[in-house]
Every structure is written in C-alpha cells, then in structure tokens.
C-alpha cells in the first residue's frame, strides 16, 4: 500500500513548478493527472510496437491485439462485467450518445432524467425523445417524490447520474433503480463518470442496463470512454458509426456486423490509450480501498468545512459529507467573478481549480445564478492543499471585495 | 528625474511585499540607490514576478482591487505569457496623453470634459470580455471605461462572415472617435469591407491607434487605403500592464515615453549606446497602485539618440521586437521582425505574410497574395529575403490561410529557434 506522500511522487506533472512555485492540482472532476505507470504503458506501446490491431497476421499486430484485448478484460473486471459487454469509445459523451441514438426511440418516447445531470446526459436524450427532468432540493439531493411521479408516466428510458459534477452529491442509485424496475420497464442508463473514480461499482449487482464512464477521470489517458451494456441490451443497440473493423462481411449490396462489442468500435481505436487505461485501473486496484476511502472523506471534510466556515462563499451542494465525493462548488458573493479568481488562484498561488457552469448549466443557473468555482480533489491531494487554497481564497476575496480607500 | 526614481523605489519598498523581498534578497535598501549607476545593482524584475505576486505581493498597501479608479485585467500576453494586473485609470490616461502628445493629428481627440468613444478590434484574449462567441451583446462587451470590444474569432482568418458583419454594424451603431486595433485585424476587416461594400465611418472624426503586435507595412497600406488620408493612424508602443509606453509622431517616427517612466535599454546587464539594440526596462514614476522597478519588458528597441523633426522631446526609438521573435542566423547575426518588414515593404500585391524560423534555423515565408500579384513581385521578394536571411536556408510559399497564435495574436515574424533558446 502506498502512502499519501508516494501517491504524489507517482505523478510527474506534480513535480512541475510554475513561476518558481509548486502546483496543486484541484481540477480532478474535469480530468485527473496520470501516474508514471500509465505514461510508461503508453510509451512502451509506441516504443516497442505501434502497429494496428485485429486485422493483421504479423507478430506486432498480434501482440498489439493481445494487449488491447487484455486491457478490455482489465477494464471489464473492474466493474464486474464480461469483456464482451464493454465497448471502448472516446469518452462518456460518446457512450451516452451511442445509447441515445442506438435505442431507436420514437419521437414521443419519454425519458426521465435529472436536472443535475451533465450536458452529456441531457442533450442526447433531448434530441431523441421527450425529456422530463427530476428536480433536486436546494442542496442538490434528488426529489424522490418527483422522480416517482415521472416514473408513473411509463418512460422508455431513465437516464441517471450516479454523482453530480456540480454538487458532488452521490445519488441513491441502487434505490432509484429498484424503483424503476418496480414501476416500469424503462431502459436504465447510468452516467458513472464522476462516481467510478471514487468508488467501485459492480454492474451486475446494480442491475443497470447501460453504464458510461471515462478513464481520464480515473488516472487514465484522455480519449477513452467506456460503455458497459448488458449483452442483450448491447445486441439490440444500433451502432453510431459504421465502417472498418465493425463488420464480418461486406459485399456489393449488404454487410454483416460483427458481434458485440466490436460492432460499436468502427475504425482504428486509440490503442495506446486503451493500454494506458488498463495501467490506470491496475494502479487504482493496487491501492488499499479502505485507506483510499478514508482519505477521500478527509478531503471531502476539508472542502465542505472550509466552505461552511466562510461568510463570503456559498457552498453549492449539501452541507454534510455523507454521500458525496471530495468536490466543492462555490458561489462567490459580492459579484466577484469566479473566472478571475480561478485565474489568480492559479497564477499567483499555484492552485488549479475550475470555474464556469461545469457543463451543467441548468443546475448551476438554478442553484448559483451564474458562474461558480469548483475545487475537486483526488488521491494525490492532501488536506493541507485544500487549507492552502481556502487561505489563498481569503486573501484574494479580501483584495477583491468592497473598496476601503 | 532620478529623484522621482528614488521616490518610486522607496514607495515600492515600503508599500509592496514583493519589492521589499526583492531588495532584501539582494542585500539592498532604498538608501543604497543614489545614482543611475547604483540603480543597476537592482536585479531586473519580470512578468513572472508580478504574475506570481499579484495581487497580494505587488499591490501597494492601502489599495484593493476594488479601490476607486482601479482597472483590473487579464490577458494572454505576448506569446501566451499570461498576465493578471491592475492599473489606475488616471495613470493610464496620463501616460496616454503624454504618448499621444507627440502626434498633433490626435490633438482633437481629447477635449476638456469629454472622453473619446473607443471601439476595440483586437485579439480576443487581449480583452477582458468574452467576445469570440456570437451570444454576447454590445452591452456585454462594453468595458467599465466605456470601450466597446468588437467580436472576432481567436483565429483571425477563420472569423465567419456573420461576425465580420456584426463588427461593421456595431461600429456604425457605436459611432466611435477612436478605433484601438491590432493592425492585422483591421486590415482583415478592410479586405472584408471591400468585399461586402461596407465602410467604416463615424459622425465624429475617426482616429486609429494600432497596438498589440508589430504594425506591418502590408497591414498599414491596406488600412490607409480603406480609411483614407483624413483618418490619422498612429502606432502605439504599449503593454497591457503599463499602458502607453510611446507613440508614433506625425512624421512616422516612434518616440518612447520617458516622462511618465524611467526607461533603460539594456543588453547583457549594461545600458546600450545610442544606435544599439537593447531590452526595454521600465521603472514607473508615481504609480501608487503597482509600482514597478526595472521591469524587464522583453521588448527590444534601438534608441536612436537623434532629434526628430516633429518637435517632441520624447526620444526617438526603433522598434525591434521581442527576443523570441528574432531570427537567429548561422553567422551569428540576428534579424528583427522590423528588418523583415522593411524588406517586405508595403507589397501592394500581398494581403498578409508571416515569416517563421523552425528549430533547425530554416526560414519559411508564407504569404497570401491578392489578385494583383505578378511572378516578378514574388521573385524579387524571394531574392531580398535570401539576401537578408542567408546563410540560413529560406523558402517562400504562397498560401491561402495562415493561422494565428493560440493567444489570438497574429505575429508576422516568429522564431521557434529563438523561443527554444530563450529562458
């Protein structure tokens, strides 16, 4: 088991100094940094192989195919799925679009979503059906009564987010899925992009039809998102893209698609990034889950208590640390622009945090009224960094607040 | 003048954490600096220092970012060297007035009790507003000082027609007295204006101040042709964090503002003689908000040491450009962006150009020709460039698109070789 100190040592980007000062990376809900083992896995593929997969008989191609498919097994095992139930795509957004477009819903099909969803779990559904959004309370917890009432309209799809990238709230997904199963026969599509980096998920126990997630939010390279689908659900899905690699046979008039998951993976995939993704999963699985969870909770506690202790920021999300990840979205009072603060936190203090609407504009507008500042921590962060960020924020807000001269 | 410098040093030492630390780290105190020679004992300060220490370490005690008359801003800076800073509105005005004072064609811009209506058309990252999307209104893009920022794409030549039309419409609606522009951007608008049959007019007398990047003769020719002789055009020497450092007189010479700043031109740590190129170091005078001492600007000039016929007392300089934009040749010579521009000339057959030196030292000159271009024009330019850039290999390439820098600026001359070698 690594110590917290060695986590940081595993991430070469954290050795960087800007303008002579070390950096603190607190934008992990957007993407995480990459450990050396992931970088090495990618470099090794390009250094020693570099060939294409699946349709070659030569030695390098076979090695690359083996490494690619072995990576799929690692990723599938991580969520309790079979390898053929895991489709390798570019990102969560592509995965959710694949499901939305591939279900061939009629224009009147009802879809139940939630107002706190990321745009990638809102817009694909809005395009293909009638989307009803479940409301949340002022702290971002889902309105269960409203959810139940929407289920009674017999939706074709229920599109859930496991965890909000704005409030950090972990929704009671198990209970919600049980309610769906008891009420209607909707297909359940889960966005786990924010949750899976923090907690393991077993898709079979969860009884979900589809689940999407991105490896870059859990130490993997950018450009890899995964779609899990129960095999029978996947078999009924229409591919988003057609072309090379996803067919078994093509003649002058017709073609025969490959079996799942290959029929969804048209064209040459991001081979190196898939191999790097498996290295990321191996890194995460090597950590002590209990210690990791405790560390996550410590970070969460520091983020929440830091926000609650200040009068000039408002926490967008629940004031407690249960059922939430180590993420705090802040509204800055007195009209202080979040974007300017994020820039100064970065350039003057070395804290990399995000500002804006977080790709969840309806929710951010509703709860915050405008741009916010989001601080999101991960395994290589320490409580002292969060304390340092709040101290820097105090100094900045003191200088940006009302004039005194 | 040096008494004012000493006062600024004492003020910065007393009122800012950064400068006190900077002096103490070099075992210096304000009273140690009694002469211009002593002054050189203070190691130069840099953009990096001010970026890292802004605001807490460089804002003078007693001020906040919301104090009266404080204007704060962020920009991408030249070549992506980010900048966050603040300036007192009246310091900006004072420096602007001194600089523009060298050119009588701009006299009527400033009348007692009025402020010119200013419209800005420049790289979007240089503005404090989100101007590159189509959703912003004129009100969204009007800065606290009343300046209207026009929309333009980050990649200038990729600006769509609707955005160009919007720029023309808004100039017409806003009726500016002054266009503050990047000349490459305004030349782009001029070409579109001819295509669309649009002109730029205003009920009041229009003036143009060009800044942000080197005003090439190619751009200037297009702007002058489009706006006509009646519109004064002046090339501004400036930096976001300092305002006007100098201006072009009506005879076309550049003058540096040594009334509101103490200026040095330095090479290898020593002041250069007249006629030699050096980096401009700026020391602010009477800057109550963010005093800067020996601020190394990264911009190079040659002080010419002569008297200009325009009558101003501000010294004449030649703009040479930034170190990272200077072409380094195998024989040890350095070719500045200004020298390249002189060789290109106003080239009526050309719309836009960019010279780029790659890390191996080879140079590629890309240009976008207009319909009047003849083979002879290209051959003659090729010959002049070969003479200028030899012994390094160079080639000339006709293109129909040249990308902007990521910062949104269009630099007419860049050197990847120099950028790699510059710390």
Automatic annotation (TrEMBL), chain A:
The keyword Nucleotide-binding does not apply. Residues 25-388 form the Aminotransferase class V domain. The keyword Ligase does not apply. It comes from the Bacteria. GO terms for molecular function: lyase activity. Its cofactor is pyridoxal 5'-phosphate. Keywords: Lyase, Pyridoxal phosphate. InterPro entries: Aminotrans_V_dom (IPR000192), PyrdxlP-dep_Trfase (IPR015424), PyrdxlP-dep_Trfase_major (IPR015421), PyrdxlP-dep_Trfase_small (IPR015422). Pfam families: Aminotran_5. This is Cysteine desulfurase / selenocysteine lyase. It comes from Actinokineospora diospyrosa.
TrEMBL record, chain B:
It comes from Actinokineospora diospyrosa. PANTHER family: CAPSULAR POLYSACCHARIDE BIOSYNTHESIS PROTEIN. InterPro entries: ANL_N_sf, CapK_Type1_Caps_Biosynth. Gene3D superfamilies: N-terminal domain of ligase-like. One of its GO terms (molecular function) is ligase activity. Keywords: Ligase. Coiled coil: none annotated. This is Phenylacetate-CoA ligase. It comes from the Bacteria.
């Amino acid at each position: 088991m690594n110590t917290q100190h060695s986590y940081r040592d595993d991430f070469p980007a954290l050795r960087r100094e800007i303008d002579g000062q070390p950096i603190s990376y607190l934008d992990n809900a957007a993407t995480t940094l990459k450990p050396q083992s992931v970088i090495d896995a990618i470099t090794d593929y390009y250094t020693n192989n570099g060939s294409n997969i699946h349709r070659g008989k030569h030695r390098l191609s076979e090695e690359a195919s083996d490494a690619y498919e072995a990576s799929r097994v690692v990723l599938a095992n991580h969520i309790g799925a079979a390898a053929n139930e895991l489709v390798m795509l570019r990102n969560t957004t592509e995965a959710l679009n694949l499901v939305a477009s591939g279900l061939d819903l009629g224009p009147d099909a009802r879809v139940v979503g939630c107002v706190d969803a990321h745009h990638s779990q809102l817009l694909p559904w809005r395009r293909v059906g009638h989307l009803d959004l479940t409301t949340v309370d002022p702290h971002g917890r889902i309105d269960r009564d409203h959810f139940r009432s929407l289920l009674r309209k017999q939706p074709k799809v229920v599109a859930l987010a496991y965890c909000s990238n704005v409030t950090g709230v972990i929704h009671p997904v198990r209970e919600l899925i049980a309610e769906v199963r008891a009420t209607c026969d909707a297909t359940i599509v889960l966005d786990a992009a924010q949750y899976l980096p923090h907690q393991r998920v077993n898709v079979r126990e969860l009884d979900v039809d589809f689940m999407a997630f991105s490896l870059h939010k859990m130490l993997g390279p950018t450009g890899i998102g995964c779609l899990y689908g129960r095999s029978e659900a996947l078999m009924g899905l229409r591919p988003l893209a057609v072309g090379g690699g996803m067919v078994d046979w093509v003649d002058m008039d017709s073609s025969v698609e490959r079996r799942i998951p290959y029929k969804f993976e048209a064209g040459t995939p991001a081979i190196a990034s898939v191999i790097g993704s498996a290295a990321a999963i191996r890194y995460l699985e090597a950590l002590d889950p209990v210690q990791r969870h405790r560390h996550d909770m410590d970070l969460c506690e520091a983020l929440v208590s830091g926000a609650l202790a200040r009068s000039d920021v408002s926490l967008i999300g629940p004031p407690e640390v249960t059922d939430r990840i180590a993420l705090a979205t802040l509204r800055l009072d007195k009209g202080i622009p979040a974007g300017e603060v994020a820039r100064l936190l970065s350039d003057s203090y070395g804290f990399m945090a995000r500002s804006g609407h977080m790709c969840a504009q309806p929710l951010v507008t509703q709860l915050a009224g405008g741009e916010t500042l989001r601080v999101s921590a991960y395994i290589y962060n320490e409580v002292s960094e969060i304390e340092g960020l709040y101290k820097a924020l105090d100094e900045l807000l003191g200088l940006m607040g009302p004039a005194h001269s | 003048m040096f008494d004012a410098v000493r006062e600024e040093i004492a003020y910065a030492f007393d009122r800012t954490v950064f400068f006190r630390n900077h002096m103490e780290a070099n075992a210096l105190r304000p009273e140690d600096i009694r002469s211009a020679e002593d002054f050189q004992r203070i190691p130069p300060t840099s953009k990096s220092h001010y970026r890292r220490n802004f605001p807490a370490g460089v804002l003078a005690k007693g001020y906040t970012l919301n104090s009266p008359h404080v204007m704060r801003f962020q920009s991408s800076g030249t070549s992506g060297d980010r900048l966050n800073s603040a300036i007192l509105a009246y310091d900006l005005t004072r420096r602007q007035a001194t600089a523009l004072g060298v050119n009588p064609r701009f006299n009527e811009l400033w009348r007692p009790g009025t402020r010119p209506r200013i419209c800005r058309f420049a790289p979007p990252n240089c503005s404090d507003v989100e101007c590159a999307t189509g959703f912003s209104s004129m009100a969204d893009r009007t800065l606290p000082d009343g300046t209207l920022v026009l929309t333009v794409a980050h990649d200038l030549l990729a600006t769509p027609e609707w955005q160009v039309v919007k720029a023309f419409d808004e100039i017409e609606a806003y009726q500016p007295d002054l266009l503050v522009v990047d000349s490459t951007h305004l030349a782009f608008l001029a070409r579109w204006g001819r295509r669309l049959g649009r002109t730029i007019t205003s009920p009041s007398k229009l003036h143009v101040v060009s800044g942000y990047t080197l005003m090439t003769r190619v751009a200037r020719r297009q702007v002058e042709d489009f706006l006509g002789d009646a519109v004064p055009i002046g090339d501004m020497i400036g930096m976001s964090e300092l305002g006007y450092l100098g201006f072009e007189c009506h005879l076309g010479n550049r003058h540096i503002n040594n009334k509101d700043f103490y200026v040095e031109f330095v090479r290898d740590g020593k002041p250069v003689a007249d006629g030699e190129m050096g980096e401009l170091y700026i020391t602010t005078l009477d800057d109550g908000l963010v005093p800067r001492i020996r601020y190394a600007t990264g911009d190079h000039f040659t002080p010419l040491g002569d008297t200009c016929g325009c009558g101003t007392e501000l010294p004449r300089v030649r703009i040479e450009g930034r170190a990272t934009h200077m072409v380094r040749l195998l024989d040890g010579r350095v070719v500045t962006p200004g020298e390249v521009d002189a060789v290109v000339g106003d080239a009526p057959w050309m719309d836009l150009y960019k010279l780029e030196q790659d890390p191996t030292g080879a140079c590629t000159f890309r240009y976008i020709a207009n319909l009047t271009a003849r083979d002879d024009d290209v051959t003659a330019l090729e010959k002049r460039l070969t003479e200028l850039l030899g012994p390094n290999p160079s080639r000339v390439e006709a293109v129909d698109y040249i990308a902007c820098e990521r910062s949104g600026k269009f630099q007419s001359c860049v050197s990847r070789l120099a950028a790699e070698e510059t710390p």
